[in-house]
Amino acid sequence: MDWNVPKFPLDTLSDDGLDWLTDHGAWLTRAVSRSVSNGIDTLTAALISVPPWAVIAVAALATYKVGGRKVGLLTLAGLLFLWDLRLWQSTVETLVLVSLATVMALLIGIPVGIWFALSRWAWKVFSPVLDMMQTLPSFVYLIPALPFFGLGAVSACFATIIFSVPPVIRLTTLGIRNVPTELIEASDAFGGSATQKLLKVQLPLALPTIMAGVNQTMMLALSMVVIAAMIGAGGLGREVWQSIQRLEAGAGFEAGLGIVILAVILDRFTQALAARARPHGSA
Fold it and tell me: How many angstroms separate the CA atoms of 171 and 194, rounded?
């Protein structure tokens, strides 16, 4: 028996929607693309212009101050090894892309997470969207970025932002909602306004959970590095992608190991920040 039910035109509707947005929002996307591209180029050029040993020393000192001797030594050894592998410029490019994407994801995700925590209807309406965002294959995020920004680091940056923002939204919401009711009631009893309650009670107590969201967001951003290289992003992902195309297993292994080293350093650093954010005496 033939299947005669008409196909729902999801593909056509999606194409028409993207075409409409591209046509009517081209002025905005061009302006954003120029700004982001200039920011990426400026930051990358600034870091590359500094001697690698100076950047490594500052990074090792910063991680030592935050995470202690083990994290500082890990940063020092890892970055020196990447420098020795002649991957310093690619490492800087990756670090700039991941940092910018993470900062933008946090600027979007933390306020949205606060809104979801304070508005139950918003959470009920939009939580399925977060579920969908976290289950979509990462390659899918490249599709809407390309029509708006074309090939290059800008598309990669925006795809990375969208891919990595759900964890910080969820964990910000969770952290604020898990603040003990007794403390909320005490704030109300002392006449605290909603803003005072949020800034002086809920956010400080939720900060460790929010920092866990920062960690997860940064790790997801870094996991997009290789995929983003497929649409023109530079960095270590480009080295891996080129080695696949050229069947150069050794070069691909070096670049892949570089991504792992960078991921471990960033993970330990953000975990140390989360530990420092915990109230004294907590587990």
Answer: 21
Q: How far apart are CA 145 and CA 160, in angstroms?
A: 10
Query: What mean pLDDT comes out for the span 163-168?
Result: 89
Nearest to 158 by CA among 29, 20, 262, 19: 29
Q: Tell me 141's DSSP state.
A: G
Cβ 19 vs Cβ 135: under 8 Å: no
Q: How far is the C-alpha of 264 from the C-alpha of 81, rounded, in Å?
A: 14
Contacts of 262 (CB under 8 A, 6+ apart): 78, 82, 91, 94, 95, 222, 236
Euclidean distance between CA atoms 5 and 118, whole angstroms: 44
Band (281; pLDDT cuts 50, 70, 90):
very low
**Structure tokens that stand for 239 in this block:** 């080295």
Interior angle at CA 242, CA 239 and CA 245, nearest 5? 150
CB 78 within 8 A of CB 85: no
Read off the tokens for 76: 């020092």
Of 262, 256, 221, 260, the closest CA to residue 241 belongs to 256
Residue appearing with tokens 């954010």: 277
- Per-residue CA distances from 121 to 9, 90, 115 (Å): 30, 44, 10
What 199-204 contacts at long range (C-beta under 8 Å, 24+ apart), as own/partner pairs, is 202/117, 202/176, 203/114, 203/176
Buried b / exposed e along 174-192 (16+ C-beta atoms within 10 A): bbbbebeeeeeeebeeeeb
Nearest to 146 by CA among 272, 61, 21, 4: 21
**Which pTM value belongs to this model?**
0.82
